[in-house]
Specification:
Radius of gyration: 20 Å
Number of strands: 2
Distance between the termini: 17 Å
Order of helices and strands: HEEHHHHHHH
Number of domains: 1
Strand order of the largest sheet: 1-2
Strand content: under 5%
Oligomer: single chain
Helix content: 55-70%
Low-confidence stretches: none
Largest sheet: 2 strands, antiparallel
Shape: elongated
Mean pLDDT: 82
Number of helices: 8
């Protein structure tokens, strides 16, 4: 009876990790659909999400770099890795998949952090096309930072870090259970 208890805990642990990874991955991907840049503060009722799509309905083209796709990619990798925890056929590869997902999530964290550090990396080319690129790079003006939705970008970074930690912890737990077997 005592040998079944550790086995059932391992199954529950895998399910909990898979659910937690899936929830955080979906949340991180959903945040890319929220506005990352909003120009209401400077007089233009337009915003763009992390995928480069605008809220404008008048056919406006040419938005910021769609860097949110890196976050979507990391989320998909994490979802696949979470699925590998649950399926018997893929469980031998789960540790590798979770390690890759942890690295992808950590790499994707560079997107929101990079935008917060250097906003023109995200929207500089758009302003250059509009002829005001020099104005947003002027240190006396704070337009480059003012148009960012900083809380959304901070939440995105936190979600990606949590996702990386969850994936790494799940991979490590698989390593320790294999050593116990």
């Amino acid at each position: 009876m005592t040998t079944a208890q550790p086995f059932s805990r391992r199954i529950e642990s895998r399910k909990l990790y898979a659910i937690a990874i899936a929830v955080v991955a979906v949340l991180a991907m959903a945040v890319t659909g929220m506005p990352w840049m909003n120009m209401n503060g400077i007089g233009f009722p337009i915003s763009w999400n992390g995928l480069g799509h605008t809220s404008s309905v008048d056919g406006l083209t040419g938005g910021p770099n769609p860097l949110g796709w890196y976050v979507i990619g990391a989320g998909i990798v994490a979802l696949l890795a979470a699925g590998s925890l649950l399926l018997e056929r893929t469980r031998p590869y789960a540790q590798i998949a979770l390690s890759v997902a942890a690295m992808a999530s950590l790499a994707a964290t560079a997107v929101p952090v990079g935008i917060l550090i250097a906003p023109t990396w995200y929207h500089g080319a758009m302003f250059d096309r509009g002829g005001v690129g020099d104005l947003i790079r002027d240190p006396h003006f704070h337009i480059a930072r003012d148009v960012l939705e900083t809380p959304v970008l901070v939440v995105e970074a936190i979600l990606l870090i949590v996702l990386a930690v969850l994936c790494a912890a799940a991979a490590f737990s698989l390593r320790t259970t294999r050593a116990d077997d």
